[in-house]
Amino acid sequence: MEDKARWVQGMFGRIAGRYDLLNHLLSFNLDKRWRARTVKRVSNILVRPDARVLDLCCGTGDLLIALNGAFGSDFCHPMLLEAQRKSASSPLFEADALALPLKNNSFDLITCAFGFRNLANYEKGLDELLRVLKPGGVAAILEFSQPTNRVFGALYGFFSTRILPRIGGMVSGSPDAYSYLPESIRKFPGAEDLASKIKAAGFERVEFERMTGGAVALHLAYKATSY
Ligand SMILES: C[S@@+](CC[C@H](N)C(=O)[O-])C[C@H]1O[C@@H](n2cnc3c(N)ncnc32)[C@H](O)[C@@H]1O
């Protein structure tokens, strides 16, 4: 495992107990809406009784629970313990998103909420999604992105670099985790660029929608039916 991945794994392990509280607090509860919108966008798959669904980088399980019956996977043990505590019936397994212990063409839907940005190698992450999805399957990537409006962008930039790290650091007791967060968002490709990466990885089609002024984006990546 690369150094970045090992650091990310340890960092999430340290904040697992306070992760949900800080998520809701620092997003003004908007994180719940972002996940709810994601579930709504993939509801056409979720209603299929035979749909096999995986929530990748499931963390403490908030999206996983809303997906109702999905498999959850993460490489951080303390985060998975939180998910298990919240949803004892969810099937969970510990795995690196870059090397999933799953067969080719085995899932109809793979969701990934706020996990993809943390991967040490985005191309490899997309390759894994494509490999594990069935032909015609969909990957739903919900991630932080770049605000499109300059004024909102400036306010958001101030909040995320000056206020968020202080509150996050204080409440979690891990200042490094909450200075990593805005830094990782800044380095992450914008919505258009991420869509290009998804296409370049071999997905047949990609669509995305921005939420909260572009602070967050949901990408839906479609694997060709004839893959
Ligand atoms: C910001 S949390 C998101 C958790 C959850 N999906 C949510 O919506 O709150 C990111 C999660 O991705 C996981 N993660 C990061 N890199 C990973 C990797 N390479 N393999 C598996 N999990 C990874 C972390 O352990 C962490 O639990």
Low-confidence stretches: none
* Helix segment tally: 10
Q: Alpha-carbon distance between the termini?
A: 29 Å
Estimate the global geometry from the Cα principal axes.
globular
The small-molecule ligands in this entry are: S-adenosylmethionine
Indicate the mean pLDDT. 96
Radius of gyration: 17 Å
For the sheet with most strands, the description reads: 7 strands, mixed
Q: What report would you give on this structure?
A:
This protein has about 230 residues and is of the alpha/beta class. It contains ten helices and seven strands. The protein has helices at about 5-15, 20-25, 30-40, 45, 60-65, 75-85, 120-130, 150-170, 175-185, 190-200; strands spanning about 55, 70-75, 90-95, 105-115, 135-145, 205-210, 215-220. A seven-stranded mixed β-sheet has the order 3-2-1-4-5-7-6, with helices on both faces. The radius of gyration is 17 Å and the shape is globular. The two termini are about 30 Å apart. S-adenosylmethionine (SAM) binds near residues 58, 59, 63 and 114. S-adenosylmethionine binds next to helix 1 and helix 5.
